[in-house]
TrEMBL record:
InterPro entries: HNH (IPR002711), HNH_nuc (IPR003615), NA-targeting_endonuclease (IPR052892). SMART domains: HNHc. This is HNH nuclease domain-containing protein. It comes from Agromyces albus. Pfam families: HNH.
């Protein structure tokens, strides 16, 4: 005999007072399962004997589940015959730290932090396996300096690399120590690291080019300033003249202002795309030209507009003033 299918709305449960639609044998699902479990669809639901009771083990506040015990103590009674047998759970106070000397991390298990517990699980010793690294924390001082935990020297904050995820936005180890570590690493395995770098670059060459382009557009002014300074310093090295670092248009603008000292007109500091000629564009002017033996120093550098710089050419300031006076 096949299963009976109802056509249209189903009748309600045949139990008096129950208006839920019938599911099986003329009863709703709830009364059907009572009949299936207890043999009578009108039988009241039997509550658990331990419902509302706490575990009978002293000082245990968990709800009782079986034989008057909570789930944990019942499992211990089932395995050992005693609800208090087996492993004893250790409790630690708030802020408890790892038992390994010098490690201030919070406890994870067995009185150890997560790192030392994993070593204990794998090697049987919380200090086994890999050598435990030193905890490198940035030691900042009120005067804006920082102590490198590697070399122990107290240096300016500028001597530490930028890192958004590090303390104060700077790495804990100074630039000199990082360069030395990288040098030792490359000297130890030059072939493998060079090959690995080439493979990684070849895999993501398109992504790298897109990032380089984005970074160039973002830092265009800074890159142009660095390129200009590099050209000047290279020219000075060829003549063995002195040179200073940090001489840029922005730095000289703070020192000399926005007015050209030769023509008295305000200079433009906006970026000019390509090789378009902008007469009022601010440029670095050397009082004694580099070709005439002058150095790229703060004392020999100033600002002037592009037009005056081109007109002055390789002459000194006095020679140019005399030539302009003669033309008049």
């Amino acid at each position: 005999m096949g299963r009976i299918k109802f056509v249209g709305p189903r009748p309600s449960c045949s139990i008096v007072g129950c208006e839920v639609e019938a599911s099986a044998r003329g009863w709703c699902r709830s009364h059907y399962y009572r009949w299936k479990t207890y043999g009578d669809p009108s039988s009241p639901v039997r509550r658990h004997a331990n419902e509302g009771k706490e575990c009978s083990v002293p000082a245990c506040l968990r709800d009782a589940r079986a034989r008057g015990y909570c789930s944990m103590h019942w499992q211990r009674w089932r395995a050992h015959g005693d609800p208090l047998a087996g492993k004893v759970r250790r409790t630690y106070g708030v802020g408890a730290q790892c038992e390994v000397d010098g490690c201030g991390q919070p406890i994870s298990a067995r009185g150890l932090c997560n790192r030392h517990f994993l070593r204990y699980s794998k090697h049987g010793d919380p200090l086994g396996g890999a050598r435990s690294p030193r905890v490198r924390k940035a030691l900042d001082h009120e005067d804006g300096t920082r102590t490198c935990p590697n070399c122990g020297e107290r240096q300016s904050i500028e001597a530490f690399n930028l890192d958004k995820l590090a303390t104060g936005g700077r790495r804990a180890i100074c630039k000199a120590c990082r360069r030395a570590a990288e040098k030792r690493r490359w000297e130890a395995e030059p072939g493998r690291l060079r090959s690995l770098a080439r493979k990684n670059y070849a895999k993501s060459i398109d992504v790298r080019r897109a990032k380089d382009k984005e970074r160039y557009e973002r830092d265009k002014d800074k890159r142009i300033a660095l390129a200009t300074e590099s050209v000047h310093r290279r020219r000075v090295r060829m003549t063995m003249e002195p040179s200073d670092r940090g001489i840029t248009v922005a730095a000289l603008r703070e020192k000399f202002g926005d007015i050209c000292p030769y023509c008295g007109q305000p200079m433009s500091f906006e970026y000019v795309r390509g090789r378009q000629y902008e007469p009022r564009k601010a440029t670095i002017e050397h009082i004694i030209p580099l070709s005439g033996g002058g150095g790229h120093t703060w004392a020999n550098s100033m600002l002037c507009c592009w037009q005056c710089n081109l007109r002055k050419n390789r002459r000194t300031r006095e020679e140019w003033v005399i030539s302009m006076r003669d033309k008049r």
